[in-house]
Design a protein that fits this description.
Layout (H helix, E strand, L loop, with lengths): L11 H13 L12 H9 L3 H15 L5 H17 L6 H4 L15 H11 L1 H11 L5 H13 L3 H6 L6 H14 L3 E4 L5 E4 L6 E2 L4 H12 L7 H8 L5 H19 L12 E3 L4 E3 L4 E3 H12 L4 H13 L13 H23 L7 H14 L4 H13 L3 H19 L19
Parallel strand pairs: 1-6
Antiparallel strand pairs: 1-2, 2-3, 4-5
Helix pairs in contact: 1-2, 1-3, 2-3, 3-4, 6-7, 6-8, 11-13, 14-15, 15-17, 16-17, 17-18, 18-19
């Protein structure tokens, strides 16, 4: 008899943890709650491994609140065995009671590996605890824990690692800073602009003209190699060597502060990568519209109808005018502008021309309009846009577009526009 109730011996193992809890909460437990472990040993002998292993973990959690060390070590061995058997998921909250004694796990031969696996299984429950153990570990144990911390880190982990000494921790923290830093999105078609967190995210305003000039140079060379000497020759061609180097260093620092207001070297994400020879935008942290257009164009070639249209629409929406329009009068930017315009034209013109039934008329219209925004004198793009307008029932708008284009050509170049290609629906421009 126990508390007036008879225990059905067939279920003694299942209810052993509950009975242990009842003993544990009494004022005179004195470790009596651990006596139920014998019932679990009998269950294991009978083949009831799930009941036995999970029960040992539960009663082991009670042992952690007593002073005796041996039952605590046995509790951790039971936890390791239950974890290896895959029995912990239903008792996750019981396992979290082991957090306070996690240091004891390191006494096991597989202790560090067990903690790393627990962190992977339940990051929110074990992340901080495993991190706090890091300063007391060395060798392979330290490497195992640090690898798990890095793999299952969150934004708070970066700050938590700050006070832990060691080159390995410093390198891990630098890696996490880059991984969890907010991304910067740089538009180069039309006016140069920066946004944080997405193409439609909050705008980052840069008031200083010299800093904006450096950003423009970095944007122009985001997909090529830019040496420090090249940047200096572009921005400060008349300055002497020492002054030019100092100007560049100061401007880089100011740009970093715009991108990360609390910037501290070695403590903050490096959006601007600067070495003794080269300078540039960090490719993993700063995304450019040209880079995104290339990525979306590659996706289109292997996508289905809906995915292809979605990718095309996103790519087209990024083209809002000339590449580096702010620099159209800078001679150093001309070569880059021509090369990029040709590349984007090669990607968007087939969409605008609807050379195959891959895109609907609205997507083709937008592609043609984007190309015209890059080059108002692109005759093929203008004719494609007129065709799209005509196909969508806007014939008057198509004719007005062609008339304006013909007038522009006559005004700008003092010559007539060429005839319309074979198969056109509106007839030659001169006959509109």
């Amino acid at each position: 008899m126990e508390s007036g109730y008879t225990v059905d011996l067939r279920y003694s193992a299942e209810i052993a943890p509950a009975r242990s809890i009842a003993d544990h909460v009494t004022a005179d437990c004195g470790g009596r709650c651990l006596g139920r472990l014998a019932e679990l040993d009998l269950a294991a002998t009978a083949g009831a491994n799930l009941v036995a292993l999970t029960g040992r973990v539960k009663i082991g959690a009670l042992a952690l609140e007593h002073r005796a060390l041996r039952p605590k070590r046995e509790a951790w061995r039971a936890l390791a065995e239950a974890f290896s058997a895959g029995y912990l998921e239903p008792i996750r909250w019981w396992v979290r009671r082991y957090v306070g004694s996690a240091r004891m796990a390191l006494e096991l031969p597989i202790g560090a590996d067990l903690l790393a696996r627990l962190l992977a299984w339940d990051p929110d429950g074990w992340r901080i605890t495993v991190l706090q153990l890091l300063p007391a570990t060395t060798g392979q144990d330290r490497a195992t824990l640090l690898r798990a911390i890095t793999q299952y880190a969150n934004r708070e982990t970066v700050n938590a690692l700050h006070g832990i000494a060691g080159n390995d921790v410093t390198e891990a923290r630098r890696h996490l800073q880059q991984a969890y830093a907010s991304r910067i999105y740089l538009r180069t078609f039309g006016g140069i602009s920066l946004r944080r967190g997405g193409w439609q995210g909050p705008l980052i305003s840069i008031e200083k003209r010299r800093v904006r000039a450096l950003l423009a140079v970095l944007a122009a060379h985001a997909h090529t190699t830019l040496t420090r000497d090249m940047a200096i020759d572009i921005l400060w061609p008349e300055a002497d060597g020492d002054s030019a180097v100092n100007n560049l260093n100061q401007t880089v620092f100011q740009l970093r502060r715009y991108l990360e207001p609390s910037y501290r070297q070695g403590e903050s994400p490096e959006y601007i990568v600067s070495s003794s020879e080269q300078i540039g935008l960090a490719p993993g942290l700063v995304h450019t519209d040209l880079q995104e257009i290339r990525r979306l164009a590659d996706r289109m070639s292997h996508a289905g109808w809906e995915q292809r249209h979605a990718a095309a629409a996103k790519a087209i929406a990024l083209v809002n005018g000339e590449f580096l329009a702010d620099l159209r009068y800078e001679t150093w930017a001309t070569r880059l502008q021509v090369a990029v315009h040709n590349e984007v034209r090669s990607r968007l013109l087939p969409i605008a021309l609807q050379s195959h039934a891959s895109f609907d008329v609205q997507v083709a219209t937008d592609a043609a309009a984007a190309l015209v925004s890059i080059d108002p004198f692109d005759e093929a793009a203008t004719l494609a846009l007129a065709d799209c307008l005509s196909r969508s029932g806007r014939r008057r708008a198509a004719r007005e577009l062609l008339l304006r284009f013909a007038d522009q050509v006559r005004t700008e170049f003092d010559e007539e526009a060429s005839g319309r290609p074979r198969g056109a629906r509106l007839g030659p421009i001169s006959q509109v």
